[in-house]
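Subject: design request, 1217 residues
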């Protein structure tokens, strides 16, 4: 039958084990072997230094065969490797070679080294190209600059990583070709040590063992153990130099018996004829198992476990090196030396198994083969790394006052399974005391003697944090009471399937018993009551729970430290501690409990034992619950003085004394979780009685909504310290009268004062309850408020009563104002005022010749008038309402007593007279008056209002003197300078007044200018002569500016050079006049000046002109020199090619002669025109007063001009160069 290979389902390995070398390497560097150990090593490893361990494994999806495995030996030829197509790519530190997915048993790679001076290597991978998938490795030292060949034999690889190589050539021989090689010869049948036959199973129970001498399965298993059971155990010394636990070899026959008796019955159903091999992994069984046991007690709950027969076979076969041989999943041979027929030399191995029903895609009946080339030598197993020891669990005392117990978890990093690391699947744990010389094994013993390795399993599923760690747990151990804790160490050694143990790794552990549970404070309360003074009695109440399950208490100490608080959030003062002196201003109370058995007795307090829920009292004892027996303690605090503080705080600490163990406990709660409660001042804060009013206070004048406002004010003792809120209460006159049994309305003839007295008497006659019920809560204001604006009901004529109570920051409300007989002194009264206003005043106004104004004022009013307000304005728009006329010009008090009654209204008539002055003006003054009543008439609850304004009275207050006219200012106009314009100004108006108009006239060169009304004169800006001014004199006016009216007279004289005399005459509406005269001097022509270009010379950067002129250079003359230059050269430019010059170049400048400086004839090359007055220079023309520099190259045209003060051209000259 053709063999097939499937490394994912069935694989095998063959590893050389040089036991003598393994034993030597088991000793840590620097440690000496125990006495006699080396002799024992030589004895145990005699004839075992050439062992070859062959082992195999089956995938759960394949299952295990129904008969023994066959082990073959052979030497497939390496010469049958063939070239193969492959791909290469850079991966990590090398070149990844892939050849299409074929499983290669032989891999030959020829290549050139990249770095001849570095080592080379070839890593064969199965499936993914990662370190976890490495199945074989071949390395070589630095080869130098030569062609290199690396060869790998493995159980199957699909890729290889070449390190430090290039130009690779790959040849392979596939696994399928190797397993079907003709050189294979069977050497042994290896299977389960079953009976012959094995019950009703379908397992082939034929003889097993070496093909040359088959024996029954049981005996064959014993032979395998005797031939291949590891001769050595764990290393003799731990990492810290202690002796390891004594190693005991198991007995081969007893091991096989254990398998037969304990394992085979559990897995027999795997080989049931009706169960296909591919479905063996689906089998499972649920069985009842004993419940958890602790302290001799077993849980009464039903417990069960689920087992899988296939896992029960595969797990020990792949992790325990002894059971690997006993269960038929491994065997051992020797390369040379023994004569038991198991000598294999350096041949390779093949393991085959026959299957009847296999998973897809294989046919039902097939022989699976696993190729296992010899590898090794395998000498060492890596020790555990990152070892830690930590407490895994605590078992509390049971019964109380017995020791605690703990379990310890020793963990380390999980080792990866690779070609270099091997397959480590088990280990052992040992423990030693701090001073012990030898460790004690914690691994279970086999029934066949020796120890049973502990199987390794990760602490979590793949992808979880625990998947990278492995742990062993040391079960519960007593922690002696008051021992200071356990000082122990743990040692861990790992073992692989070949039986090679790693070096020990030690870790120290120190664990102490937990401290006793401190008492718990469940509730805390401090209450105080008001007893008529600031020293208030108080009561401290607390509930606590004490644990009785671990340690029994004998007493409880309670320390309460009281401290004053400035606010509700004030923390306890610094230094507040039960072990320190009590800070100043604080005081201390010590309370507690003592126990006589279960019965508590209070110390400085009364005690009540409570049930588990803490709600109801009950008899002390276990019925209270062992988890925490609860007690309520109540202690009276003599007094808390609230004279200088609004709050007292108390911080409480508890600690207990125990019958056994560390005692007393630490104070609890700790500083981070203080137990603090407070008691607020129970003292009320009563507002001070308001002062008695002279009458009935009135509200404000009604607002825009027609409502009157009242300001309620109050005072508090000590500035209101400690007040959280102030409450304003209100009661109307009608409501109080009805509650007192009086008619709802007082008689109309009663004044407000009489009504208020009746209300006070009615209020005092009520009981305190009735008094409070009569008022409604109106406002709640902050404690800092001392007044409140209250809006009275619209249209109300009642007297309204108000009072104020407070609530302290501690929540205490002040009592209702009383006692009843004098309670009204705490009330404030107010009523909406009755508004009364005088009639509009009657105004009589007269003006004296000297401008004095007299105003007589009369007003009839039933409310007394205090004064009259007189308003005056010249604006008709403003006079429409007295409020837009500005402030009053006079406030006139009335003449008392009032005059006789008004014949129409019968009201008294109030009179006043004002005499004063108003600023003179040609516009009429508009006068109005308002009668201002007294502010209040308290007896009548009347508030006076200003009257409406009087009718408008118009008066004229003209200036007392003649009109004003500014001095005349004259100037000439026109090109011939014959025109003269005379200007002036006046405060007169150009409109018709109540007295008439202003008129303007004059005389020009003895020619009269007719008087003309100012309103008839044309208004112009005066910038040019009017059209008719050339033939006759013209009068005109300008726009009024700053209270002045500009006036102008335009005339034309016959001779410009002769002086001219002009007069202006202004007449006001009253017939008063003023006249001004001015004489205009004759026109003097401007003298002519000369301007010559004396010489022109060229320099490298331009042209210099010598210029002469007789024009004065004074500032007053204001003469300027204008210079303009234009370049006239338009000839083409020379080669390399003709092209026209740019456009004309122009420069210009104007220079005030008075500002020309004196200096040397040198000019800067800045492209600007410059003019200087040259110093004495040899060769410079004496008549040339100025040197002019023009920055243009010859040919150039230059124009010079003299300009007058107004910019007029005086003389022009042109030159060139």
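Subject: RE: design request

Done. Sequence follows.
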């Amino acid at each position: 039958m053709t063999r097939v290979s499937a490394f994912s389902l069935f694989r095998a390995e063959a590893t050389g084990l040089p036991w003598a070398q393994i034993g030597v390497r088991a000793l840590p560097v620097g440690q000496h072997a125990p006495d006699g150990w080396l002799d024992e090593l030589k004895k145990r490893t005699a004839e075992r230094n050439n062992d070859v361990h062959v082992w195999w494994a089956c995938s759960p999806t394949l299952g295990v065969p129904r008969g023994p495995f066959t082990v073959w030996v052979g030497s497939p030829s390496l010469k049958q490797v063939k070239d193969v197509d492959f791909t290469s790519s850079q991966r990590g530190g090398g070149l990844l070679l892939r050849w299409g997915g074929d499983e290669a048993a032989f891999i030959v790679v020829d290549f050139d080294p990249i770095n001849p001076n570095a080592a080379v290597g070839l890593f064969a991978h199965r499936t993914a190209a990662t370190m976890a998938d490495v199945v074989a490795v071949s390395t070589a030292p630095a080869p130098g600059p030569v062609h290199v060949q690396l060869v790998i034999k493995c159980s199957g690889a699909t890729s290889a990583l070449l390190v430090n190589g290039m130009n690779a050539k790959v040849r392979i021989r596939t696994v399928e070709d190797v397993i079907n090689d003709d050189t294979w010869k069977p050497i042994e049948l290896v299977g389960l040590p079953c009976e012959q036959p094995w019950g009703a199973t379908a397992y082939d129970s034929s003889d097993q063992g070496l093909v040359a001498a088959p024996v029954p399965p049981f005996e064959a298993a014993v032979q395998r153990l005797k031939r291949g059971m590891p001769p050595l155990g764990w290393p003799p010394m731990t990492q810290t130099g202690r002796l390891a636990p004594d190693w005991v070899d198991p007995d081969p026959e007893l091991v096989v018996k254990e398998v037969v008796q304990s394992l085979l019955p559990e897995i027999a159903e795997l080989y049931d004829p009706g169960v296909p091999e591919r479905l063996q992994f689906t089998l499972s069984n649920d069985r009842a198992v004993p419940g958890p046991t602790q302290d001799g007690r077993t849980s009464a709950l039903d417990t069960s476990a689920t087992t899988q027969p296939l896992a029960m076979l595969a797990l020990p076969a792949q992790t325990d090196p002894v059971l690997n041989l006993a269960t038929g999943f491994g065997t051992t041979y020797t390369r040379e030396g023994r004569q038991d027929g198991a000598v294999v030399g350096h041949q390779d191995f093949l393991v085959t198994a026959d299957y009847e029903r296999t998973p897809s895609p294989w046919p039902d009946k097939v022989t699976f083969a696993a190729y296992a080339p010899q590898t090794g030598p395998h000498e060492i197993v890596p020790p555990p790394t990152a070892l830690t020891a930590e407490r895994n669990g605590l078992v509390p005392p049971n019964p109380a006052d017995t020791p605690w117990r703990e379990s310890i978890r020793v963990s380390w990093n999980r080792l990866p399974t690779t070609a270099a690391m091997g397959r480590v699947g088990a280990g052992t744990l040992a423990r030693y005391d701090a001073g012990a010389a030898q460790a004690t094994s914690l691994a279970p013993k086999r029934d066949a003697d020796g120890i049973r390795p502990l199987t390794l399993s990760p602490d979590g599923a793949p992808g979880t944090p625990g998947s990278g760690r492995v742990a062993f747990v040391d079960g519960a151990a007593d922690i002696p009471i008051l021992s200071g804790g356990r000082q122990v160490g743990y040692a861990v050694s790992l073992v692989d399937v070949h039986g090679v143990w790693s070096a020990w790794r030690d870790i120290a552990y120190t664990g102490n018993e937990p401290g006793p549970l401190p008492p718990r404070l469940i509730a805390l309360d401090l209450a105080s009551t008001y007893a008529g003074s600031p020293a208030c009695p108080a009561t401290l109440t607390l509930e606590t729970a004490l644990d009785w399950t671990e340690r029994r208490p004998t007493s409880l100490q309670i320390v309460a430290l009281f401290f004053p608080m400035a606010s509700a959030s004030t923390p306890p003062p610094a230094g507040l501690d039960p072990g320190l002196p009590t800070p100043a201003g604080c005081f201390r109370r010590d309370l507690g409990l003592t126990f006589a058995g279960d019965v508590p007795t209070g110390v400085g307090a009364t005690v009540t034992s409570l049930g588990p829920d803490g709600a109801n009292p009950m008899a002390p004892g276990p019925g209270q619950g062992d988890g925490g027996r609860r007690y309520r303690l109540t202690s009276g605090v003599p007094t808390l003085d609230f004279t200088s503080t609004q709050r007292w705080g108390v911080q409480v600490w508890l600690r207990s004394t125990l019958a056994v163990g560390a005692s007393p406990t630490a104070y609890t709660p700790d500083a981070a979780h203080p137990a603090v409660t407070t008691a607020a001042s129970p003292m009320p804060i009563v507002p001070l009685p308001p002062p008695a009013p002279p009458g009935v206070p009135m509200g404000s004048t009604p607002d825009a909504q027609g409502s009157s406002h009242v300001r309620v004010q109050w005072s508090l003792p000590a500035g209101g310290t400690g007040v959280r809120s102030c409450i304003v209460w209100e009661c109307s006159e009608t409501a109080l009268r009805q509650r007192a049994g009086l008619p709802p309305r007082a008689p109309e003839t009663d004044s407000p004062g009489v009504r208020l007295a009746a209300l006070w008497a009615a209020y005092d006659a009520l009981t305190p309850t009735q008094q409070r019920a009569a008022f409604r809560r109106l406002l709640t204001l902050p404690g800092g408020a001392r007044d409140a604006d209250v809006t009275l009901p619209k249209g109300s004529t009642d007297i309204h009563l108000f009072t104020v109570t407070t609530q302290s920051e501690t929540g205490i409300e002040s009592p209702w104002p009383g006692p009843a007989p004098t309670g009204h002194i705490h009330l404030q009264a107010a009523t909406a005022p009755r508004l009364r206003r005088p009639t509009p005043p009657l105004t009589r106004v007269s003006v004296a010749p000297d401008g004095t104004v007299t105003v007589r004022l009369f007003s009839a009013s039933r409310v007394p008038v205090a004064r009259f307000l007189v308003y005056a304005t010249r604006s008709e728009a403003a006079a429409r309402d007295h409020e837009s006329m500005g402030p009053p010009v006079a406030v006139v008090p009335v003449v008392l007593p009032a005059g006789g009654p008004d014949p129409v209204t019968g009201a008294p008539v109030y009179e006043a007279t004002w005499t004063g002055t108003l600023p003179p003006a040609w516009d009429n003054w508009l006068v109005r008056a308002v009668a201002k009543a007294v502010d209040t008439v308290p007896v009548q609850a009347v508030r006076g209002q200003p009257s409406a304004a009087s009718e408008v009275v118009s008066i004229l207050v003209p200036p007392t003197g003649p009109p004003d006219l500014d001095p005349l200012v004259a100037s000439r106009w026109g090109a011939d300078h014959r025109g003269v314009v005379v200007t002036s100004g006046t405060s007169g108006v150009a409109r018709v007044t109540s007295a008439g108009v202003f008129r303007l006239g004059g005389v020009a060169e003895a020619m009269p200018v007719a008087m003309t009304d100012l309103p008839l004169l044309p208004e112009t800006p005066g910038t040019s002569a009017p059209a008719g001014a050339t033939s006759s004199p013209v009068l005109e006016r300008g726009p009024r500016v700053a209270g002045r009216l500009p006036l102008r007279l335009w005339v034309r004289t016959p001779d410009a050079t002769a002086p001219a005399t002009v007069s202006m005459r202004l007449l006001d509406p009253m017939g008063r006049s003023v006249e001004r005269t001015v004489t205009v001097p004759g026109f003097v022509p401007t003298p002519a000046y000369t301007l010559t270009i004396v010489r022109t010379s060229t320099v490298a950067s331009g042209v210099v002109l010598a210029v002469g002129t007789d024009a004065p250079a004074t500032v007053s003359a204001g003469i300027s020199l204008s210079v303009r230059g234009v370049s006239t050269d338009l000839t083409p430019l020379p080669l390399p090619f003709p092209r026209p010059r740019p456009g004309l170049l122009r420069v210009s400048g104007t220079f005030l002669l008075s500002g020309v400086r004196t200096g040397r004839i040198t000019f800067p090359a800045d492209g600007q025109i410059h003019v200087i007055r040259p110093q004495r220079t040899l060769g410079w023309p004496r008549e040339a007063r100025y040197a002019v520099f023009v920055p243009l190259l010859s040919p150039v045209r230059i124009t010079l001009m003299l300009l007058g003060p107004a910019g007029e051209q005086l003389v022009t000259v042109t030159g060139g160069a």
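The two ends are 128 Å apart (CA to CA).
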